[in-house]
Amino acid sequence: MSSAAPRVTGQDHSGPDHLWSVEEHLEDILATVRPLEPIELHLLDAQGCVLVEDVTVPVSLPPFDNSSMDGYAVRIADVAGASEEFPAALEVVGDVAAGQAELLHVGPGQAARIMTGAPLPPGAETVVPVEWTDGGLGEGPVRGMRARSLGPEGATGQVQVYRPAEARAHVRAKGSDVKAGDRALESGTILGPPQIALLAAIGRGTVRVRPRPRVVVLSTGSELVQPDTELGAGQIYDSNSFALTAAARDAGAIAYRVGAVADDAETLRSTIEDQLVRADLVVTTGGVSVGAYDVVKEALSHVADADEEGSGIEFRKLAMQPGKPQGFGSIGPDHTPLLALPGNPVSSYVSFELFVRPAIRALMGLQDVHRPVTRATLTADKALTSPKGRRQFLRGTYADGRVTPVGGAGSHLIAALAHADALIVVPEDTESVEPGTEVEVVLLG
Fold this sequence. Notes:
Distance between the termini: 33 Å
Number of helices: 8
Number of strands: 29
Helix content: 10-25%
Shape: elongated
Structural class: alpha/beta
Radius of gyration: 32 Å
Strand content: 25-35%
Strand order of the largest sheet: 1-19-21-22-18-14-17
Largest sheet: 7 strands, mixed
């Protein structure tokens, strides 16, 4: 099923020298990418997905009054005034364990040894922790109960209670967590471990969600080799496909990394076509600029879906640095969206944060697809400069309302990414930002 809406490429931007703004490019992407159709999934398969229905509680939690402590279920009057000097002596009528169906009745002068989570037996009004008793041993306060297998006699006999207890002390009341008919989760909730736990607790084994998008990531370049292999002359390790695959997973997608594709247009087209069967979104990196070996641009510039007007991949120049060359469109029989990012590692990663991550979040059906943005005071040794007419995104570290650049202005510094948790935004109409100035910051953490 298509994850891209019909679009008209080049609308109002048909000139070859048009410089797209960051907002224009992102708006085109988000207007094209449509949320994936909902499906029913088992709970663990639904982790990380977005709920598309309100879930109501069919049965109260807890479904019965139960003990929150290991101890003794008693009547209030029987332990009133109890102390270590004058303990209350009660007859133990048996055990009440969690999951036990048949319950004992606690009468006057009696106690039932009760375990955490076990139903409060009829007649009992409160629970005294075992540490307030002699555990039936007659030797003063104890720290706990002996295992039933080692001391079965603990379920009978007599227990001495050294402290009084208020009504319903250490008792979790029926429905005190949620009541039948309450709304447990709202549509639009991302299902994390606590939400999965709640669904299981109220008896839901499956849930209707938008699935996590499947994202295929591939890098291009004949110079790229797999890590853990020996570098040859003129070769470098492929880092982009690893970075973007990890970033896609961090954004909530199921991401597949494809090994680096050599600079051959036909090989690239064939590889992408083979991957479309498992892709809701394709991300390429490299080969989108103006060089003679920019294979992505060569391979995809004239590829279009014959049955849909305006489909295909359009390559653009954006008023930003790093990340000026970009490509976007749809490809294949299902009109799968494709984002073509620059090959420079930092350009690629910044482009992912600005464009691919929002696209993934839109496929998930989330309303807020953007990273948090804040204002912070710039801490730097010198002014930050930016090319006139281009918005610049610099790596930085953010803490306590202050942001510090990392790695200078060079867009090629991969190591700077590993230490950055924010992007410092220098607007396109600002050529210089002095230290101490308040700047816009995109928080990556």
